[in-house]
Design a protein that fits this description.
Number of strands: 6
Number of helices: 5
Structural class: alpha+beta
Strand order of the largest sheet: 2-1-6-5-4-3
Radius of gyration: 15 Å
């Protein structure tokens, strides 16, 4: 069953990529997820997810995720909301509360009941006695349900800031 969800997620991303290629988003330096490059409702859900993490409200953050969400980060995968909630969600909230992030650029698009929001930013500060200075990228895929937009896929990556950047 997990393989089927992975195949379905990949197919969804291909559909979104095709739609994005056919209707490329307008480039924007607007840091708002609900700006002209993303569906306003889907963008608000992404913003609400990060706001919940920043408040340490893991229940609210988890509620914005589909039960079958797939989260990729650092070469690992968590294949459900319950798996993420029982593993990395509390640590992600603690990190977000301690450091936060600065959104530099965001784009997105929508194809029917699927939307995507791609964000670039930076996290800088101290966490557990370590200096953190990382460039971040995030892609969230959302599906419109009877309960509103739900996050069905998250892909996070980051790299250390170098002197050239």
């Amino acid at each position: 069953m997990p393989q089927l969800r992975t195949v379905m997620a990949a197919c969804g991303l291909l559909v979104l990529a095709s739609a994005a290629a056919a209707h490329p988003p307008t480039p924007s330096s607007d840091a708002s997820a609900s700006g002209p490059t993303a569906d306003a409702g889907a963008g608000r859900v992404v913003d609400d997810f990060h706001a919940a993490l920043a408040r340490g409200d893991t229940a609210a953050a988890a509620n914005l995720l589909s039960a079958a969400v797939i989260i990729f980060e650092g070469g690992t995968a968590e294949r459900s909301r319950s798996e993420y909630a029982g593993a990395h969600l509390p640590a992600d909230a603690a990190f977000e509360q301690a450091i936060g992030s600065k959104l530099a650029r965001r784009s997105g698009g929508r194809a029917g009941d699927l939307a995507w929001v791609a964000s670039e930013g930076q996290t800088k500060g101290q966490f557990k006695g370590r200096d953190i200075d990382r460039v971040t990228t995030e892609t969230m895929v959302l599906r419109r349900t009877t309960e509103g937009w739900k996050i069905v896929h998250v892909h996070w990556s980051s790299r250390a800031v170098t002197a050239a950047h």
